Structures are given as structure tokens and as C-alpha cells.
From TrEMBL:
The gene is LOC111299779. It is found in: Mitochondrion inner membrane. GO terms for cellular component: mitochondrial inner membrane; proton-transporting ATP synthase complex. Belongs to the eukaryotic ATPase epsilon family. Mitochondrial membrane ATP synthase (F(1)F(0) ATP synthase or Complex V) produces ATP from ADP in the presence of a proton gradient across the membrane which is generated by electron transport complexes of the respiratory chain. F-type ATPases consist of two structural domains, F(1) - containing the extramembraneous catalytic core, and F(0) - containing the membrane proton channel, linked together by a central stalk and a peripheral stalk. During catalysis, ATP synthesis in the catalytic domain of F(1) is coupled via a rotary mechanism of the central stalk subunits to proton translocation. Coiled coil: none annotated. GO terms for biological process: proton motive force-driven mitochondrial ATP synthesis. The keyword Ion transport applies. It comes from the Eukaryota. Keywords: ATP synthesis, CF(1), Hydrogen ion transport, Ion transport, Membrane, Mitochondrion, Mitochondrion inner membrane, Transport. It comes from Durio zibethinus (Durian). This is ATP synthase subunit epsilon, mitochondrial. SUPFAM superfamilies: Epsilon subunit of mitochondrial F1F0-ATP synthase. One of its GO terms (molecular function) is proton-transporting ATP synthase activity, rotational mechanism. The lineage of its organism: Eukaryota, Viridiplantae, Streptophyta, Embryophyta, Tracheophyta.
Length: 65
């Protein structure tokens, strides 16, 4: 039986670790001074594509930002 004292505060707050780490990363990026702030904010953007697979082969991907 686990003690409630061992539960991380972000879990107690109802967050996942990914949500907690994203909040922390945004706070750090916003605390930076220029020109480092705009450089860090530009790296925050993630580009990815989603492909639907049919019969073991990918169909044409759709780009999402």
C-alpha cells in the first residue's frame, strides 16, 4: 500500500507528467531574454504528418502543425 506522501504534486493536481513538463518548459522559455527567447520559442513549434495505413502500406500523409 503506497502512502499519499509519495505521490508527486503534479499527479495530486490531476496533471500528467507531460502536461507538467510542458508548463515548466513554457515558463522557462518566457523567462529568457532576447534574442534567446525568440530562438527558444521558434524551436517550440513541432511539425509532423499523419499517415493512414491500409494493408500494411501507408497512404498519402496529411501535414499537421
Amino acid at each position: 500500500m503506497a502512502s499519499n506522501a509519495a505521490v508527486p504534486f503534479w499527479r495530486t493536481a490531476g496533471m500528467t507528467y507531460i502536461t507538467y513538463s510542458n508548463i515548466c518548459a513554457n515558463l522557462v522559455r518566457n523567462c529568457l531574454k532576447e534574442p534567446y527567447k525568440t530562438e527558444a520559442l521558434s524551436r517550440e513549434k513541432v511539425h509532423f504528418s499523419i499517415s493512414k495505413w491500409t494493408n500494411g502500406k501507408p497512404e498519402k500523409p496529411t501535414s499537421d502543425v
